Amino acid sequence: MSEEAVSKNFIELEIDKDLKDGVYDHVCTRFPPEPNGYLHIGHAKSIILNYGLAKKYNGEFHMRFDDTNPTKEKVEFVDSIKADIKWLGADWGDHLYFASNYFDRMYEVAVDLIKKGLAYVSDLSAEEMREYRGDFEHPGKDDPNRNRSIEENLQMFEDMKAGKYEDGSHTLRAKIDMASPNINMRDPILYRVAHMTHHNTGDKWCIYPMYDFAHPLEDAFENITHSICTLEFEDHRPLYDWVVKAAGFANPPRQIEFAKMYLTNVVTGKRYIKKLVEDGIVDGWDDPRLVSIAALRRRGFTPESIRKFVELSGVSKANSSSDYAMLEYCIREDLKTSRGRVMAVLDPVKLVIDNYESDDVEWLEAPNNLENPELGSRQVPFGKELYIDREDFMIEPPKKYFRLYPGNEVRLMNAYFVTCTSYETDENGKVTCIHCTYDPATKGGDAPDGRKVKGTIHWVAAKTALKAEVRLYENIVDEEKGVYNEDGSLNLNPNSLTVLKDCLVEPSLKGAKAYDSFQFVRQGFFCVDAKDSKEDALVFNRIVSLKSSFKLPTNN
Asked: In sequence order, what are the beta bridge partners of 469?
């Protein structure tokens, strides 16, 4: 087998065979979400896969909203889904479609099926239909209405469309096989009565097609060649094939299933996320603790990192889980050489350099990223009064603590060596101010006499520091207990969000815009919050910490 063939996933091998055998002379794929919620990381895999296949084979990629269920669909979700897909880099060009725009054509197909004797109107209740359907061990029983005349079925279906029946009272069913071992083929429902206002078609319709009927027709109408979907639709494939064949399509699409993306210790279910939103536990579908695409974007993940994650997760027929730590690995790899490094003090305590005589601001040069010299350098203000992080000073340090303590000398990053001479505390013993002296000869961070220091700490100048709020995130669920309780509720982590109100950042961050991201040296990667940050009140989300024990799995 050639090296190229080995590197291809099983879907690409199937497409290659179809093209070689002349089944299709082009490739056309689609992403067809139902607009009933925000997309999540699992959808990203499908988007990237479908768009990637179209691009690889110089084909077409269609964006289609599968809006056949008006009970749950909103324009809000339509807009958010379009924004997510564009952000991920999938370009549908002129190929934006809505299933609801095909309702007239779907109705015509349904009428044609009735005329062919392949569909009939049923007035069984939902409970009766379940009873007649049978189960995995028992075949179903024929619907009492199964042998109605074609003329009567046509009239009743017209009456359904005209609004003469109540919701749930009548359905249109396919006439297939009530004894089929595949329950999906036991005369499935094609249309139901539902007097609902639709976000796109308004009140034009009071009957709506079922997904298993509508979806294959949509694909066929658009000349989709390969309908790529997840494994739960494998048992529905015979029905998909039956619909396009019964409808008379000469060269119908082909459905191919792949395994969903499962992520460890995360919440992706729309029902659970909706409850978190409604209960006020998160501040919306884009809360950075979630893994909706909007939430990942707001937190600071990049399209490149998500595409890399999908690539590393692979495409297969077998269900498996990807580690959330691998997603974090991907964003670290993307940001570590592409983003500037700045100084931010998250828990500030004042540091005064007693022998620094000038009250003026001194400007020092600092590299923006030591791993990427092309990002250049910036000027950082320095002065007599600074702020450092509280954890960088201890009165009585343990062994191997190399930061600041009485009598110890450390390096202020990109500045000078300083030695702690004293400190002040409040009535509770909390340190309020640290006093130091500095060595003017060590400007830039090196001593001319060659002496070394073991500790380097970051800082911001008191005169020019900007105030900021910083939000630190952990998993929204308690990883040790698992995602779900026995009753199906979520095991929530009470420490999933920590808000630090009194942080200070260097002035180079003035004017930072929504989604701008940086490395806060020694702290992690952070992003300007797109919802709450303002020019005079900066808010930063921690995307990810600097280090992790995660290592990419090897292919041994």
From this structure: 539
Of 447, 365, 357, give the one whose Cα is nearest residue 411.
447
Reading the block at residue 168, the tokens are: 């749930």
State how far the Cα of 97 lies from the Cα of 80, in Å rounded to an integer: 16
Average pLDDT estimate for 62-66: 97
Give the integer Cα–Cα distance in Å for 447 and 134: 85
List the beta bridge partners of residue 250: none
The structure tokens listed for 126 are 């939902």
Among 545, 482, 87, 524, smallest CA distance to 321 is for 482
Measured CA to CA, the distance from residue 346 to residue 344 in angstroms comes to 6
Residue 3: predicted pLDDT: 45
Q: Is 181 strand, coil or helix?
A: coil
- List of residues 6+ apart from 308 with CB closer than 8 A: 330, 333, 334
**3-class DSSP state of 185:** helix
Q: pLDDT tens, 218-264?
A: 999 999 999 999 999 999 999 999 999 999 999 999 999 999 888 88
Return the number of other C-beta atoms located less than 10 Å from residue 327's C-beta. Answer: 26
pLDDT digits (tens, 9 = 90+) for 418-444: 999 999 999 999 999 999 999 999 999
The span from the CA of 290 to the CA of 266, in Å, is 8
The answer to whether 337 touches 305, Cβ cutoff 8 Å, is no
Find the largest Cα–Cα distance for the chain.
103
Q: By three-state DSSP, how is residue 18 classified?
A: helix
Angle value at C-alpha 245, between 240 and 251, nearest 5 degrees: 100
Q: Give the three-state DSSP class for 106.
A: helix
How far is residue 120's CA from residue 178's CA, in Å, rounded to a whole number? 14
Chain-centroid distance of CA 547 in Å reads 22
- Relative to beta strand 119-122, strand 171-174 is antiparallel
Residue 199 falls in which region: left (phi positive, over 0), alpha (psi -120 to 50) or beta: alpha
Burial class of residue 218 (count of CB atoms within 10 Å of its CB; 0-12, 13-18, 19+): buried
Report the alpha-carbon distance of residue 157 to residue 114 in Å, rounded.
9
Q: Report pTM.
A: 0.90
Residues 6+ apart with CB under 8 A from 543: 299, 300, 301, 331, 335, 517, 524, 525, 526, 527
Q: What single letter denotes the amino acid at residue 196?
A: M
DSSP assignment of 522-549 equals TTEEEEE-TTT-BTTBEEEEEEE-S--S
Tokens for 463, please give them. Answer: 């005169």
| Count, residues in the chain | 556
Q: Would you tell me how many other CB atoms lie within 10 Å of the CB of residue 551?
A: 9
Residue with tokens 């669909």: 73
Q: How is residue 370 written in tokens? A: 């030591």
Angle between helical axes of 237-246 and 211-221 (0-180°, round to 10): 60
Determine the Cα–Cα distance for residues 103 and 80; give it in Å rounded to an integer.
Answer: 24
Give backbone dihedrals phi and psi of 343, rounded to 5 degrees, phi first. Answer: -105, 130
